[in-house]
Amino acid sequence: MNRFIGTASVLLALAAPAPLFAQAALRVAPLTLDIVTPAQASSLTLDNRGTDEISLQVRIFEWSQIDGEDQLTPAADVVASPPAVRIPAGGSQTIRVARTGGSAVEGERSYRLWIDELPQAAPPAQSGGRVDVRMRYDLPLFFRDRGAEPQLSWRAYRSGDALVVEAENRGSGRARIQGLRIEGAGGELSFGAGLNGYVLPGAAQRWTAAAGSSFPPGGEVTLVAAVGDRETRQAITLAGR
Questions:
Q1: What is the pLDDT confidence band of residue 160, given thresholds at 50, 70 and 90?
Q2: Which pTM value belongs to this model?
Q3: Of 18, 62, 173, 179, which one is least surrounded by beta carbons within 10 A?
């Protein structure tokens, strides 16, 4: 699962968005925006629970996955208003997010919403210029119709001393993967107890873990994961590479 690094060397947790504004005591709600047709807009609330004013910039990127890597490009059809704010200590601000172009979404479209904390003395960011980011929230944002659902196919194989699990999503909606693990005669192999990430529609993702000799090629294993709010258990024969 790919990760993006900000200009302040802040790790952007694409798979598991988490509050990164501990120093400024910023609180954001909700942490995921899921906008269902016919709605074309929603909002989030920023609360400054700290003792100093904070300056923030809000940007939205179209989110895709190519060859198992996350790709972001500036969104042309979704806007945040206002795109920049100053919130005094104890204050709050509502940010409206709206889709501006075209007819209602069929299936699902995926975006990332960045909330960047800027230095107090910095001038407003210029288009195409460098932004000196102190801290960042990175939130998933989706526009979808009510029928958008994932359709995953799984495979697992040995690659040297590692075991690789791949998921391909042939459905119309994203798959949110949690608690991915392999169970077999050699025991249990976890790929992370929490949120492992997303598989976007029409995309594939892979996860790798050191396996030693416990899970040999040709062995039968059971893949276990929570996909959305459902548990998946699937028997797989490990391939070799």
A1: confident
A2: 0.82
A3: 18
